[in-house]
Amino acid sequence: MQGPSDFELSRRKLLLGTAASVAFGAAPGIADAQTPAGPAQAATAPAISMSKVSFNVNGRVRELALDTRTTLLDALREHLHLTGSKKGCDHGQCGACTVIVGGRRINSCLTLAVMHEGDEIRTIEGLGTPENLHPMQAAFVKHDGYQCGYCTPGQICSAVAVLDEVEAGIPSHVSADLNAPPQLTNAELRERMSGNICRCGAYSNIAEAISEVAGRPA
Amino acid sequence: MKSFTYERARSPAEAAATAARTEGARFIAGGTNLLDLMKLEIETPAHLIDVNGLSLDKIESTPEGGLRIGALVRNTDLAADPRVRRDYGVLSRALVAGASGQLRNKATTAGNLLQRTRCPYFYDTNQPCNKRRPGSGCAAVGGFSRQHAVVGASEACIATHPSDMAVAMRVLDATVETVRPDGPARTIPIADFHHLPGNTPDVETALSPGELITAVTLPKPVGGTHIYRKVRDRASYAFALVSVAAIVQRDGTGRVALGGVAHKPWRIESAETQLPRGAKAVTAQLLSGAKPTRENAFKLPLVERTLGAALAEAKG
Question: Ranges for the 2Fe-2S ferredoxin-type domain (chain A) (predicted)?
Fold first, then answer.
């Protein structure tokens, strides 16, 4: 496996390269956002506010000192190198960044890392390993619940949490009776998964994978 | 995103005091709307006060027979509460009609009320917007206005309020409890909480600087059949073109509020006397004085038909 420092180096080189190529034609502000602050920019750039946070990721306590602006998604990907969680839209619209915090699925792009002091965070890396897949991961493989795979970690984290939500009796928009335990029908499943977009359109296979884990035919 | 300092609040009163004396301070709870807007630099707080640690996450029965919902109760928990499902079904229905499972797990009761509009011109910082930059004009007037308001709008702003939950709160006569930095706690009827745009569309609520919502209280249940019917461009995870929150009693009387048509949840109590006469009569009064654009004129018949469908559903 690639060491964290190697990863950081290669990524920084990549970002520097991108920033340099952008700087020729674009507003300076765009280059600033991707270039580490040099002496020339230090005079005008506002002070960066840092904050410490400690949380548990996949069973391991992690302590970080972060720019307060760092989202949970960026903390996971860029600081802890858990790149399974994906950045799709970065605005809570696509669900590719879905992780499970305190047992609940959330969009990790729409929450600040510093807001998660003491929280238990589970990412796709914490669900299973290539040798020992989580049942939901195995079902996605079996039913071909993806094409390009970019949305898949978010889909799987979301699906795992959906089954818990149904188990807990949380109603959905398509639940016929608010006061009866929800059933995991295909309509329920599709409604509950609507926060996870798959541009390849693997929805029917995703639905089959989740249904199998839930123990029901799709 | 602009840089900001960050602190965790220790008490509602202290949070309110800090917010009032700190330039550019904002509260953050669920953050699902605020962070979205911060990334686009539509919101640029200099200081964030994280209120998540305040113990405002309980749903308690009130002596009057109602429910007091803590400001930090998540949308998922509010929708799933057995008392809400049983006695305030319109609220559960409205909540699960909004956003996605992930967002509802984060979004709070107070934050939902404080959502900003999803007007595309408010989101596009290259466009004039009186809400985002007072005095700059409104690009939605004469622009792409299919989603916009048909009643209660002004020349300065034709944006709609995006919340489903707030429409149900309006039909339930909820009250908003707050603490203020330099005054006693107060309660604001939901009818007065959201403002119409007028000449100051940037002033969206009755809250004063530093004022923090601590709870939303529901009066005792009114019975009846509870319906929330939402019409949107796709079946899930989209904002309303039109929504109807209705509570209908056996004798045909009841209450109605609309979403997706105005700058605030839209309810005209006097129109409700027409309920036994049907959707057409109610809609005529609810939307009297409506000034739709060419692109959103479809909302007028859509309100009538959606209300008609809701009333038919109530009859069973």
Answer: 51-127
Q: What is the pLDDT of residues A178-213, one digit of tens each?
A: 999 999 999 999 999 999 999 999 999 999 999 999
Q: Which CATH number fits domain A50-126: 3.10.20.30, 3.20.190.10, 3.40.50.2300, 3.40.640.10?
A: 3.10.20.30
Please enumerate residues of A whose Cβ is less than 8 A from a Cβ of B: 46-49, 51, 67-69, 71, 90-92, 95, 98, 104-107, 110-112, 114-115, 117, 158, 161-162, 165, 168-173, 175, 178-179, 190-196
Which CATH code fits A128-217?
Answer: 1.10.150.120
CA distance, residue B55 to nearest chain A CA (Å): 15
Of B36, B76, B96, nearest to A110 by CB-CB distance is: B36
> In A35-169, where does DSSP find H-type helix?
39-42, 72-74, 124-127, 135-143, 152-167
Q: Go through the domains of chain B in sequence order and give each one's CATH number.
A: 5-52 (3.30.43.10), 225-315 (3.30.390.50)
If DSSP codes are grouped into helix, strand and coil, which group holds residue A144?
coil
What is the distance between the alpha carbons of residues B34 and B161, in angstroms, rounded to a whole number? 15
* pTM, to two decimals: 0.92
A42-65 tens-digit pLDDT = 445 568 999 999 999 999 999 999
- Return the amino acid letter for A76: L
A chain contacts of residue B6, beta-carbon cutoff 8 Å: 49, 51, 68, 112, 114
ipTM comes to 0.97
Q: Who among B52, B89, B100 is closest to A194 (CB)?
A: B100
